[in-house]
Amino acid sequence: MNPFDGSVSPRHEEAEDAAAEGRCPWARFSSWLECVCVVTFDLELGQAIEVRRLKTSICYLSFPDSYSGSLGDTQFSFRMRQSVGRRGSRFRDDIYNRDAPVTLQREVSHFCGYVYFRQVKDVSVKRGYFQKSLVLLSRLPYTHMFHMLLQIIAPEYFEKLEPCLEAVCNEIDQWPSPEPGLTLNLPVMGVVLQVRIPSKTDKPGGSPLRQTAKENLLPAPTVLPTIHELDLFKCFQSMLIHLQMLWELVLLGEPLVIMAPSPTISSETVLALISSICPLKFCSDFRPYFTIHDSEFREYTTRTQAPPNVVLGVTNPFFIKTFQTWPHIIRLGETKMAGDLPKQIKVKKLAKLKTLDTKPGIYTAYKTFLHKDKILIKRLLKGIQRKRPSEVQSAILRRHLLELTQSFIIPLERYMASLMPLQRSVTPWKTPPQIRPFSQDEFMATLDHSGPQLTSVLKGDWMGLYRKFFRSPNFDGWYRHRHREMVQKLECLHLEVICDADLLGWTKDKSEVEIVDLVLKLREKLIKAQRQQLQVKDGVMDKLDAFIKSIISSLPDDLQTVLSTH
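Structure for UDENN domain-containing protein, as requested:
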């Protein structure tokens, strides 16, 4: 494989132009994409070419892992661990992640890959086929948007090659950076994509983007109602009767393998599963498309320890034998119809997963804590019979999963809020009070009067589900995130209380040592607040900065000199 026979890099004169404009070369491009890659299969070189680890991984992830005789174009996604030592712009990431929903934050240690693979007959090639992939590598999980972008640029690239890609990259470098809450118009190859970047302040399950009537753009923009959501119904249509089980397995971060007939089905199913617990962030590792050449293959397939808490999507039949010890395996085939309804796969015993021709099914011994929602299943199946559009079916499904997750998480949020110190206990002259520790027993005692039964009709062992959730990576990730937010909230309250205090009056009867100590502590708090991008009330930071300067100016010259060097 020749990984970068058409890779794109900035020209020297373009870098100089960007510098003259006062911005870093390719800074806007980098806010959307890490790079654009072209991967070609070379029969003679095959997998033997020696390239760096990152390039090797991209090569293998950009092609179907097992033989496929199907011709034409295929799109799929992957996710890969980044090389040690690589790092994006910390400042840019922090600003974006501060305002983005947790499920759409920039990846810190992984890349998201979006692939457009073409396979057509070509007698001029030894293998008899032209096989090439165009890959977009990004830290942003904008699955729908980047696949739409590939549908625009990939067919044109396969006709015109490198000059086309260079022009596209230059256009992307003119785009505004993705900023949560904004609607952006993004021109590329004569098309204008209109997208809205979701914000953490958005109401979950809010209305999708519709074209704005005020703008008079030429050409008229192509409006993307979402930048990240998938066709959930298409992904789950053969597993509708098992939705409750799938949701619980993902919520609990259970080890799960999806064995699919193609990278497209594999990647879409994994991403749909991960999104099923939204707005809760899935905090374990997940790989929409995983191959035997992946650098984590040994780590994730060892039999000397329990399977890791990851969700893997695979296509190579070899994995059936490799993953026999895993507790949950979903074997998918092409969707088949039973009359006018999609045939539903069955739950089967793991012992039956033995041969390469294993039939589709969910191979697990897992028993759900909650009963399935039969009304939802009937509604979706009736929708199929009535030819209800897939996007409407997906909206029904997404709404159900959102409400289910919210019913589960709201009691946790309510209890977590009760651990926050009272605002009146925050004073300017003392360190902010500590947040009370999370007590599982104390939380469980709140469920009788404020549990999920208040918002969900589902019956079952909710308490058992919570107990198991407490042992999962998703609880650990949720708790750490919420605790960090609460600590920052306390820091903001403390800064605001300090700002409202009579600091000048306090200094009148204090020694120079005490005043210098106060100045150093206030300056440290300001620097920390700026570094963490704390969202304090308007004017607080400026007022404290002005106070520090006025105090310093009132001190003897030698102390002013010392403080100015700190």
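The radius of gyration is 27 Å.
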